[in-house]
Amino acid sequence: MSREPATHIYKTVGDCQIKADVYRPPAGSALVPVLVYIHGGCLMYGSRKSIDPRQLELYLQAGYAVISIDYRLAPETKLPAIIEDLQDAFRWIAEAGPGLCNADPQRLAVVGHSAGGYLAQMAGCMAQPRPRAIVSFYGYGDIIGDWYSKPDPFYCQQPAVSLEGSEWHRGGPKTAELYEGRGKGGLYLYCRQHGLWPLAVGGVDPAAEPSFFTPYCPVQNISSDYPPTLLLHGDVDTDVPYAQSVLMAAALSQHRVRHELITMTGLGHGFDGKMDDAPVKEAFDKVLAFLDEYL
Q1: φ, ψ for residue 107 (rounded to 5)?
Q2: How many structural domains is the chain composed of?
Q3: pTM value?
Q4: Span 46-63, average pLDDT
Q5: Rounded distance between C-alpha atoms, residue 281 and residue 275, angstroms
Q6: Is 192 among the domain residues?
Q7: 175 lies in some domain
Q8: Are 51 and 108 in contact (CB under 8 A)?
Q9: Residue 289 sits in a domain of what CATH number?
Q10: pLDDT digits over 259-292, tens only?
Q11: Which of 66, 139, 195, 262 could form a disulfide with 23 if both were Cys (CB 3.0 to 4.6 A apart)?
Q12: CA-to-CA distance for 233 and 225, rounded, in angstroms?
């Protein structure tokens, strides 16, 4: 089923308008719980429009309003400002949500994929209102581990990208929709081949200033009041290591936070693109049950 959202500008920085797409559930007058959807793309590309329409329909039919947000992208925008966008989006939803789509800001959860999963985890540390529940698909809680700050064996098997080929210094618009099809795949590949992703998104070398990244590593900022969390991760993921969700689950256990790690055996990054596969259908049944429990 095709769904046309209402698009709103939730924040303006200079000449950059940062937008959110609001999808209303089937008609009704009562306030409804809201899902904040955060797209992936290594914090460098992707947009609010990338939400899978089949997944969107599941959430809407379950009675949720869905608000898919953009945020400014690296390397043009660095990590602190990206997190500010996340915080401002939640603040805007709390203030405007009831008038936008009958959203109940007291019943808010966040769903994210990959880098969006990372930002969903960050929302549990830094967003207000704090989400009641977090769903992280192949997200990550440690952004300066060896997997991101050293050359990656999987990506090093691919043709080498030069600094010039990466277009690191080219610059560009601050949100993905303005790129008009020009992606940053070369930049990401260059970063993974040289272990430079933290520098690209943070503007700081983690080897020289690791403490700069501490506030931006969810696994280091969990407390006993962190929201209930559902982690989904394929155990043969070649982009974000499965170990990232294992580490997050261990930290949640240490602080006695309610959580579950769903291991997608034999599946890799973006496994949820195969919505017709039985394991993926079963996983989404668990996602909906988890959201229903906490919202």
Answers
A1: -125, 80
A2: 1
A3: 0.95
A4: 94
A5: 6
A6: no
A7: no
A8: no
A9: 3.40.50.1820
A10: 999 999 999 999 999 999 999 999 999 999 999 9
A11: 66
A12: 24
Question: How many CB atoms neighbour CB 122 within 10 A?
Answer: 27
φ and ψ at residue 131, rounded to 5 degrees: -65, 145
Task: Indicate whether 267 belongs to any domain.
Answer: yes
201, part of any domain: no
Tokens 């200033």 -> residue: 209
* pLDDT score of 180: 44
Alpha helices (H) along the chain:
53-61, 79-101, 115-126, 146-149, 153-156, 163-166, 185-194, 197-202, 243-254, 278-294
Tell me the one-letter amino acid at 257: V
d(CA 91, CA 130): 10
- Provide CB contacts within 8 A for 86, sequence distance 6+: 38, 69, 71, 119, 122, 123, 126, 127
Q: How far is C-alpha 84 from the chain's CA centre? A: 14
- Both tokens assigned to 286: 């668990």
Nearest alpha carbon to residue 116 among 212, 206, 232, 6 = 232
